[in-house]
């Protein structure tokens, strides 16, 4: 992870703050480049820094007893990594792994807690984001239990697209199996089904969405509901930015 000082696109949480609150907050942030597969925080470790992605996205994984991992959320420019600090919890229950390379604003935990104590506007907005995240976690749990693999895969690809702001991104079948909590063969079959209908193409870990409308139709309703939860509470993207739903944040 290296520092980057060029102009940054907005993080939606921070962009919605008043100019005064935003400027006071951002002055204590460092823009950093996030690299693919970089681990920002391990499960059970102390949270030393929080991240507000402005490009790319981060997968949030919960470890299982057999060594496997299950994704419970994705964070892009609609959210933040490090929300347990809002509850006074200093350790992360989840592993945060960069799944889409990009840029984020990073702040150390002590400065973050100070801003939340001193600025009611920041505290209120981040609490609303935490509220949305909890609702979406419940939605994801229901989705994992009741919906079949192919609609869930379509939903996950759409959420990745929204955060990558692109129709092409790097995803291996092995990682997708972790994301969906199924065996690799199940992911392969679902991906073949989407490919056969012309919705996606994939080669050597690179997936390209060819038909956004078709993929949205085959996706389970959880994709739409996740977007609605975020937008009803925190507002829609400004300036024609790509859609983003803001799943659970670590």
UniProtKB/TrEMBL annotation:
Keywords: DNA-binding, Transcription, Transcription regulation. Residues 13-98 form the Cyclic nucleotide-binding domain. Pfam families: cNMP_binding, HTH_Crp_2. One of its GO terms (cellular component) is cytosol. InterPro entries: cNMP-bd_dom, cNMP-bd_dom_sf, Env_Response_Regulators, HTH_CRP, RmlC-like_jellyroll, WH-like_DNA-bd_sf, WH_DNA-bd_sf. It comes from the Bacteria. PROSITE patterns: CNMP_BINDING_3. GO terms for molecular function: DNA binding; DNA-binding transcription factor activity. PANTHER family: CRP FAMILY TRANSCRIPTIONAL REGULATORY PROTEIN, HTH-TYPE TRANSCRIPTIONAL REGULATOR ARCR. This is CRP-like cAMP-binding protein. It comes from Povalibacter uvarum.
